[in-house]
Amino acid sequence: MNQPRSAKLTWLLIAIVGALTVCPVVMLALGSFSEGLTAFGVFTVDKYVGAYTDPAFRDVMLNTVVFVVCSSVLSTVLATFLAYLNTRTDIPFKFLFGILSIIPMMIPHLLFSVSWALLLNPSNGLLNLGLKEAFGLEEAPLNIYSMWGMILVEGLLDLPIAYLIIAPAMASFDVALEESSRVSGASAWKTLFRITLPVLRPAILAAFILGVVRSLASFAVPSVIGMPGRVPVLATHLYEMIATGFATDYGKAAAVGMSVLAASVTLIVVYRALTAESERFVTIAGRGFKSTVIELGAARMPLFAIVGVLSFVLIVLPVAVLLYTSFVPYSMVPSARAFSMMTLKHWRDVLGDPISILALKNSLFLALVGATLGVVLSVFVAYVIVKVKTRAAGILDSLSYLSFSFPGIVIGVGFMWFFVQTPLYSTIWALLLGYIATYLPYGIRPMSSAFIQIHSHLEESSLVCGASPFVTLKRVIVPLLIPGIVSGWILLASMFVRELTLSVVLSRPGTEVLAVQILRFSEDGLWGKLSALGIVMIAITTALVVLASWVGGRFKTAWGR
Amino acid sequence: MKRLVVATLALFAALNAPAQDKALLDKAKAEGKASFYANITAVEPIMKAFTADTGVTGEYTRISTSKFVATAITEFEAGKFMADVVQGPVPVLEILKEKGVLASYRSPAAKGYPDWATKDEQITLFGIEYVALVYNKERVKPADVPTRYEDLALPKWKDKIVMANPANHPTTIAWLIGLKENVFKSEADWRKFLDGLAANKPMFVASFGPTPAPIESGEKLIGISMPKYIVTKAPAPLDWARISPMMGTPRAIGISAKAPHPNAARAFVDYWLSAKSMGILAKDVGEYVLAPGVFPPIAGIDKAKVIPIRELSDDETQKWGAEFKKIFDIRK
Smallest Cβ distance to B67: which of A118, A232, A248? Predict the structure, then answer.
């Protein structure tokens, strides 16, 4: 694309993305400097002084750093391992592992955390009971209510995001680079660490950074696992700030949120610096490109066993717990009696509840329409971020993260303060715009990872041959971007199906959504109904993932012709 | 002559009361709907009954307590407050009253409620969010069931208690203060109880909602929770320790000063406070209500002494939350 046209596109996108993401953050910034409980009041810095001089703040930040860094490392390492095996090797049952690695994203985080508490609580956690029985132990060997428990569960929850960013980049990797390394005498391990992983650095870093930002904003794990374990992190600190009393001061919580925002923006700047020479990471250029499968040989079955066990313990078991909980009349440890008491009552209640059905329809609408609009916007934004290397592109990159970086517990109120000034307040369109604004990085990241690996020579060759920019985009760029587009759509759609933080503030009668219904059940302690609706949610998301993969496959075949 | 005047007045009142109701209902019907902002479990049956009985559509918006004031005031100041009627803990309604969000209305349906239920012109109390020691009746022997609150501090309950976090859960904070003011003879006794309870290392959860699950499953044996779960979580093996008095924060209702449907709002409040609605609330949700003679279907509740806890200001709640944080050593 020529320079003036690129500049126009960049500024147009800055205007669109800015309008979507800046407004709620500005409202929160105003609220953090205003007396009173809303965005507009007499100027004051008291909220900042109060928030940052809290003696507990230092310990909270220390715990937070350990929690977010370790959980992000865990999710990134696991995702890289799974993506490599899945996209590059001949490991059996690939498709299954692909689905399994994104299942945690489909489960409401609250439910996933509760499942792990049922498995690993020190009193009667199922795995602990099994281990005590097997090894004749007096006490439970594992306690999920701890920092390591939080890291494990958050790491697993963030695994799909990391996987969906790394897998497309891994899939577009030109194996010729590895072959050259091997021909030059390097071992498989040396090739992995000297060629494969460095070339994938942008995707791996993007996954890590997204993990950091998500775990900073996460509330389910700190609340369900950290609170009983008495491990306070930023999210529970913010919760304490807004929950102690009735005249909730979101401005003070926003004052703390500003430092999270600053940290996130800094991370993005660091990321851009580390991947600035993006030409170094290009693997698909004008020459022949192939992505061949590496034969694992003797390691095939052992690796399959490792991934199988990992998938079973980390993913299948918690989902099985959910299914079980949806059938027992109340929370029970599995036993002959529990199985004899199984009932469909929770399912009947949920499927016969008109509000739950309306919520299901609304969530499906928001997922389908929202994810599609989000992906369209993300393609253009990712293009500008990766291919147009101007300062304005950097601004666009940071803008896309603004709402996303803010702790979830607060950002919803920012949107409420903003939308209440517009006619969109209390409509489904407010939810749609809020969702896209907040989760835009889920669409952008997989696509930028894919864009980074496509050399501009391809685009230039097409233009030189007389193709218009649109035809170039359609015939050259988009087919190569399909894995990224599918990943982005899946991430956005499944996020929208279970979105809670904005919905809990913006949803009104007629615009109920699934996650808010689930929250209601959770507030009332109705775990059976909650699990039943959670499984409905997983089923819907699975259907969307399969649909997206199928459509992606069809498009790739059709557009590549 | 005196008897005749009284009889005439009574006849006039009897004839006029339904006429007033009918006039109000006609206006309410013309307005079409009543929008109700609250955070209360499973009130859909009441909304349905209201719609069926009055012809006015009842529309329920559930807003979490922590977001209630922020939402109401934001909408109110922006001129978009859509609620006709609001319901919540008394301190929430007090804040809304101070901000001018509530209108005056004394419902005739509150007749027969305790005197203290009519707090003032704007706020009417209709129930108490009652708290008790709820235990697993399959795992706790009858002889071990606490008979005094102090029993919860006995070492036998170590690692067997679940409760909402006393550092930040307002109702739990108010309940612990209620013990000091209504149960323990001296502050020293109360402090001793708190130290014993803290030494038993209760498991903390975010609110009352997650308290019954660990008791049902046997992960914990007893909790500071709400007896209403005996109804909503039946057939879970839950029961409550008969300790007097039982305490809780009062629930209240009021009408919006800028109600889009002011007559429907009044009709809704009248309906809400009626024995029929309160009966649904008690029967389906296990709520403790102030309508005379209406009790939840929980054994022994009709004999229990249930008292409202003094309302704590936000400053007081935060002060005591910080104090409990130290006592319960929550950061370690």
Answer: A248
- Contact assignment for A244 to B60 by CB distance below 8 Å: no
Q: Check whether residue B55 and residue B177 sit in a common domain.
A: no
**What are A497-551's pLDDT values in tens digits?**
988 878 888 888 888 898 888 888 877 778 888 889 888 888 888 888 888 888 8
Q: A189 falls in which pLDDT band (50, 70, 90)?
A: confident
The distance of B116 to chain A (nearest Cα, Å) reads 22
With an 8 Å Cβ cutoff, are A240 and B167 in contact?
yes
The predicted structure's pLDDT at residue A559: 59
B254 and B240, same structural domain? no
Residues B71 and B212 in one domain: no
Q: Which of residues 72-101 of B touch A (CB under 8 A)?
A: 73-75, 77-78, 80, 82, 89, 91-92, 95
Residue from B37, B71, B165 to probe the interface with A (highest A Cβ count within 10 Å): B165
The distance of B223 to chain A (nearest Cα, Å) reads 14
Going by pLDDT thresholds of 50, 70 and 90, the confidence category of residue A556 is low
Confidence band of B11 (pLDDT split at 50, 70, 90): very low
Architecture, CATH, for domain A3-560: Orthogonal Bundle (1.10)
Looking at the structure, tell me whether residues B295 and B311 fall in a common domain. no
Question: Do B237 and B138 share a domain, yes or no?
Answer: yes
Averaged pLDDT, B193-216: 92
**Closest in A224, A239, A247 to B314, CB measured:** A247
**Chain B hits for A331, Cβ within 8 Å:** 212-214, 216-217, 236
Task: Judge whether B9 lies within some domain.
Answer: no
- Give per-residue pLDDT as tens, B32-86: 999 999 988 768 889 999 999 999 999 988 888 878 888 898 889 888 888 999 9
Distance from CA of A247 to the nearest CA of B (A): 6
- What's the ipTM? 0.76
Task: Answer yes or no: do B266 and B193 share one domain.
Answer: no
**Interchain CB contact of B183 with A (< 8 Å):** no
The range of the structural domain enclosing residue B39 comes to 32-126+250-299
Q: Where are chain A's structural domains?
A: 3-560
CATH number of the domain within which B64 lies = 3.40.190.10
Split into its structural domains, chain B has a count of 2
Q: Are residues B66 and B133 in the same domain?
A: no
Token representation of residue A376: 């369209």
CA distance to partner chain A, nearest, from residue B245 (Å): 24
Are B142 and B171 within one domain?
Answer: yes
Task: Answer whether residue B7 is part of any domain.
Answer: no
